[in-house]
């Protein structure tokens, strides 16, 4: 209508039919299973606008230019330098405590990528708290990935972190130790942020656990390799406790 106080929504015939079909389907709607509930919640909160999960969502190519970065070094990370990360397997990756930091700002927040200009919005706790347990129940490490190993030592881990062979320090800092190259995240946060099994599996099989990440495969999947990773974990726990 023109000239009145009734809003004009501009719906075409296809949109009207889509709305009618959706309303008819409400009568036959089934209860959500856990995966469907996560998908529904992510759609309702528009998580897919920035994050990909299960092949759905993520920043559209036309909008990637709006996701800036704060340092030239971030260019070396490719799409990981400015785009929000995929949420595939996030329940196997993040601890519930850290997920609370990211989602609703618990304990000061969970930002770990200072080189990204886009910031994660904070939500009301009651809106996103279900994610903490839902992701945990759904997401598991790939069955083909092994993560076990003997207990290591922090002293061996410190030597590994600073060694030229593994070259961790070329991309990552640890506590007060600064990175000498790319702005990879500070690994001192890992023990609080990451599940131990995910950390070990990721270092053994980075491309399997987190697709397309610019992380080299530097640890062999052998008993010695798994022990070396556990030593690195023990070292990072010491650094985080300082």
Helix count from the secondary structure assignment = 10
Distance from N terminus to C terminus (CA atoms, Å) equals 68 Å
Quick one: overall form? elongated
- What structural class do helix, strand and pairing data support? mainly alpha
Mean pLDDT: 89
Question: What does this 3D model show about the protein?
Answer:
There is one protein chain. The chain is mainly alpha-helical. It has ten helices and two strands, in the order H-H-E-E-H-H-H-H-H-H-H-H. The chain has a two-stranded antiparallel ribbon with strand order 1-2. Helix 6 packs across helix 10. The longest helix has 19 residues. The protein starts with 12 loop residues before the first helix and ends with a helix.
Question: What are the defining features of this structure?
Answer:
two-stranded antiparallel ribbon; mainly alpha; 10 helices; 242 residues
